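Example record

One chain of 134 residues, shown exactly as stored in the release files.
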Amino acid sequence: MRHHAVIIFFLAVFLLPSQGFTVEQQFVFENTCQQQDFDNLLKEIRCVTCPNQNIADSNAPVAKAMQEEIFQRLQKGESALSIREYLLSHYGDYIFYRPLMKKQTWLLWGGPFLMFFFGLIFCLKTLITAKRAA
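Predicted C-alpha cells for this chain:
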C-alpha cells in the first residue's frame, strides 16, 4: 500500500509540471518578410479583452483568433497595410497602439508640439518681461 502511494506521489510530481511546457501553436511562414510583418502586427495591435496587452502576449481566445486571422491573411498574400485596414474596420481605432494620422487624431499627434510651442512662448515672454523690469 505504501509502495503505491510513493508511485502516485512521484507520478504527480513529475507529470503535473509537464502541463506548463505544452507547445503553443506555431505559425510557419514561407519567407522572413511574412514573419516580420506578422510579428510587427502582433506587437502593435492591442488585445480587445486584456487591458494594456498586445495580442502577441495575450492568451485570450479573441487574441488567438486575431493571430490566426492575421496569419491566414498573410498566407493569402495580403499586405500588412491591408490587414491593418481590415482590423480597423472590424475593431475600430482602439486596437492600435499607434493611432493612424487622420482628422480625428490631429490633436493627439499635434497636441504635444503645440503645448511645447506655447510653453516656449510663455517662457520667453516671462524672461523678456523680467529683463525689462530689472
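Notes: Helices lie at 2-15, 32-44, 61-75, 80-91, 106-133.
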